[in-house]
Amino acid sequence: MDLNVKIVSRRPVFPSTRIITPLDVPLSIIDATVLNFSPSETVLLYDAVLSPEVMREALEETLDFYPQWCGRLRRNDKINRYGRLMLSYGHVEDPGVLFVVGETDVSLSTFLPTPIDRAQRLQAWDASSFPAKQLVPGDSLSTSNLDDPTLHSVTVQLTKFGCGGMAVGLKFAHPLTDAHAMSHFARDWAAMCRAIVIQSPLPQLFPVFDPQLLDAHAGDVNALDSDPELIARAHALHSHRYDWWISGEDCPYPTDSATVPKGLEPCDPPGTRIPWSEWDLAAPVSHYVFHFSGPELTRLWQTTLDSQSSGFVSRQDALLAHIWTCINRARGLSDDDGLVHLDYTLGLRARTAPPLPEWFMGSPLIIAAVSTTGRRASRSPAGVASLIRATVALFTPESVGAHIHAKFHEQSPQRLWQAFLGKRHLLVTSWIHTHMYDVDFGSGKPQYVEAVMPKCDGLLQLMEAAPVDASSDGPKHWSDDGVDVQLHLTTEAMEKLLKDPVLRRYRVE
């Protein structure tokens, strides 16, 4: 729907105490691998509005602890390796963080069901018309053109609604933040805002921006040759190696990713051709949010455990297996003996030894490939849950270190894509434990959080649902309030999925 948002103001903001001390910080090699990913984006919707001036002041105070996000993302020309990135900040000409304020006469209730309705009445909400792109700045980010020094890497938009509600939209260049880093920043900004509102001392914040903490797990990266043992271990991981540089002829849309960069002669062994024929880009795509209650998820998980011959699976394993098998049936793959893939985005903070700090800023990600036949992945949720758990278990600190080592020695960190979309793939991102529903700027917690993603067939995102019982303040399991599953699927497959009685088999009335 068209919100007809009127932009009231737009300006770059900087730390409240701006220090002009130029710094050029190389990003992690893993940060560089996500250069061509879509931005990290979210929209948080609130029932009440706060003063944009107070929120801007709080943002400036917060940026005292995040000065790097005011800088410029650029190529690292200080080393003779292609595709490496660095962040330059502390310069007079820094682009800053773009801060936009807009307003609309539309009410939130026009397009957003209440948390109780989403959890109890709907349980499957058609969010295809959710106006996410109107609630974040439409400006191109620095990742779209690393040669343009004016482009921002972080943008923010506040939108006031006619009902008195407010949207807070955040958009980040993906090499700077994954969902967990974005959540930490949002909670820090909110804490700063609350302190200003009640006139209490401003909090001290402790984000960790030190990309080399991750790269330090790569072993010797200065040697001319890579370590064959580490390369073998990295290549043994269950991850796709789809090769952009050998897949350009079949690519259905123009993209620089599928072109060998000028001046480079490919020297690495080729990966796998991207299976473009499996993805119908012209097919209409629907976007639904499925709510699974806490008791429903517990029943699903317990049934999965009872069906296991051995080993443990988590609630998240069980839920993913359940949904994926339903999706494969909806896609008509029940009798298909070809491979299908659950491409599972894994965070690396806890997968290094020692682990990275919880507040580590960056995009430390790897994508695991859980692969089996369409036939098996349509009929055996318990077996699929075990396969998911077994695949994730392969990503040990030793294997992750080998992967980082391999990326250092590749000619380009952007050449290989560890995921795909379309009929045989489901790309999963988990926002579990991001605590996005705790982001309170002083007017209350959000009634809805949207993970903004492209409208592409085969995207799935998990997140704790909005609490509907504000009185329960004690310790809770992450699934107690239920789980929201945002799913983008072809409209044809989505319609079949909605009719599958197995999907809500474990529903508790």
UniProtKB/TrEMBL annotation:
Top-level division of the source organism's lineage: Eukaryota
Gene3D superfamilies listed in its UniProt record: Chloramphenicol acetyltransferase-like domain (3.30.559.10)
GO biological process: secondary metabolite biosynthetic process
Keyword Cell membrane appears in the UniProt entry: no
Keyword Transit peptide: no
Keywords noted in UniProt: Transferase
One GO MF term attached to the UniProt entry: acyltransferase activity, transferring groups other than amino-acyl groups
One Pfam family named in its UniProt record: Transferase
Protein's UniProt name: Transferase
